[in-house]
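Extended Data, panel c. Modelled sequence:
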Amino acid sequence: MKTFKILTIIGFLSFALYSFTSIVQEEWIVPEKYQTMKNPIPTKTDASIGKSLYTKHCKSCHGKEGYGDGSKADEQEGDLGDFSSEEYQSQSDGTLFYKTTFGRDDMPEYTKKMPDDEDRWLIVNYMRTLAE
């Protein structure tokens, strides 16, 4: 009986620790140099190219309006975010560039698919147009 109690306690503690680790992993850590990075592409520059790149690379998961409701959204495990939200839009351009560039979990890294930094900056500019 004592062994059962010990195993139950160990099981409970293991589950609690696992749950805590999952919560901690939800936070997306962006290096300081990216948080303060300025977008070198003026906002209105090549807006149609930014939209086209978003449509090609982002829309299937993030949706046409950036609500996280694209055709592949249900296949993803994490929260895809809502690009129109104040919380999302309050992030710096450098933070969005970092997330778009390096990804994590279900979000792929785009340094190979889009090796030109300018393309990813154009996407950041387009995502800014999705504000509420």
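The two ends are 59 Å apart (CA to CA). This feature is highlighted in the accompanying rendering.
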